[in-house]
Amino acid sequence: MSINLEEQARALIRADNFIDGQWVAAASGRRFAVTDPATGKLIADVADSGPADAGAAADAAAKALPAWRAKLPKERAAVLHRWHALIVEQQDALGALISLEQGKPLAEGRGEVAYGASYVAWFADEATRIYGDVIPQQQRGKRMSAIKEPIGVVAAITPWNFPLAMIARKIAPALAAGCTVVAKPAEDTPLTAIALVMLAHEAGVPDGVLNLISASRESAAETVGEWLADGRVRKITFTGSTPVGKHLARESAGTLKKLSLELGGNAPFIVFDDADLDAAVTGLLAAKFRNGGQTCVCPNRIYVQRGVYERFSALLSAKVAELQVGPASDPASQIGPMINARAVDKIARHVEDAVANGALVLTGGKRLTELGPHYYAPTVLGNATPDMMLCCEETFGPVAPLFPFDTEQEAVDAANDTPFGLASYFYSQDVRRIDRVSRALEAGIVGINEGALASEAAPFGGVKESGYGREGSKYGLDDYLSIKYLCQGGLE
């Protein structure tokens, strides 16, 4: 029985910018189309913003900052708790909206709502735990202390693959810290973010504290450029590709903004010969095929020790071949469409290159054009090698290439042989190996006998060219705060 996603989501669909508590069209009057990746059907024409709209949002955020930062932490926390309650109340509709514009199965859409809401609840509580320090006295007659203050106006720029969770885990800590926000979601999936802001306004977030504008791919750089040049915007928080992250870092240097950058990944997944293979297959399925492989922490390179390579390949291929592919409107679907034609073309290019260089297709390896233009079969490739494109480029799709290896050091060296360092995974039952390998892997996040890593209580972020800063956990608030040192003399 199919589900009418659009009917479930319709009440939450808005198509304009939200600036200073008002729904407004783009100053230019331009709009762009948001479509269902499963069918290509138009969902809505939304505001195509430009620099004037970005400037108006920054004006509103700067004006609202003094009053919002002056609120007691428990007052900000109360607003965030109300926002959390509204998100949970609208879980089904928000999940349907995510599935409609992003394509992921409805169960995953609902799961993303719960995941994003968990960050709002977490930072509502953290708002009341922003502590400073009294510094031990160094000189008679002087008292020294350090306090934490909101950094100011924050610009949040988010990707399409988790249209609710990514923006929630940026807005929630910013508001908890006492900052005001200007936000721009990805052009492929703006509707969920707009709905989230609508619920925040209903929860009592004051006018101007949270502002959101949408922009097409053609307008985005110029629009965001307004914030990069604006000295009132003191922080950029961005999730997306490494090239765009580097651009933001360069262009914001003129005003020395603070940046949090959660960028690309090329995650390794290592299966040692002492691993529980059934558990490793289950963990890989969860890590690799969530959202059709379209996540930044998806394993991109699966290294399997030669002694268990054949058995693991067979177990994994059998499970992947059973995955059900289809639109989110079909409750049986486990893998939905890719986000757009460019994504499918890249996946096909990587698989074709791998096969041309000696990889074996163990299952999948083809477009599913009978379902629509944006579908690709869940794929397992055997005998992958380092000279294949998929070894050094993030595929961002449902493709699991298997690389055989012999020694522990060989696997660690291969895992670290990348400019990226977001997530790494490995499976082993040897406690000494677990200690060695977890220390040796160059990544901000390491999954040890576990494929599902995300939690609002854990710090999420990478090293090397996967960026810097952390989201979630007690550390996630620090990126929205500055430390002020107070020295009081004349006390004797």
TrEMBL record:
It is an enzyme of class 1 (oxidoreductase). GO terms for biological process: gamma-aminobutyric acid catabolic process. Residues 23-485 form the Aldehyde dehydrogenase domain. It comes from the Bacteria. Keywords: Oxidoreductase. Pfam families: Aldedh (PF00171). One of its GO terms (molecular function) is succinate-semialdehyde dehydrogenase (NAD+) activity. The active site is at E262. Gene3D superfamilies: Aldehyde Dehydrogenase, Chain A, domain 1, Aldehyde Dehydrogenase, Chain A, domain 2. InterPro entries: Ald_DH/histidinol_DH, Ald_DH_C, Ald_DH_CS_CYS, Ald_DH_CS_GLU, Ald_DH_N, Aldehyde_DH_dom, Aldehyde_DH_Superfamily. Its EC number is 1.2.1.16. PROSITE patterns: ALDEHYDE_DEHYDR_CYS (PS00070), ALDEHYDE_DEHYDR_GLU (PS00687). Belongs to the aldehyde dehydrogenase family. This is NAD-dependent succinate-semialdehyde dehydrogenase. It comes from Trinickia symbiotica. The gene is gabD.
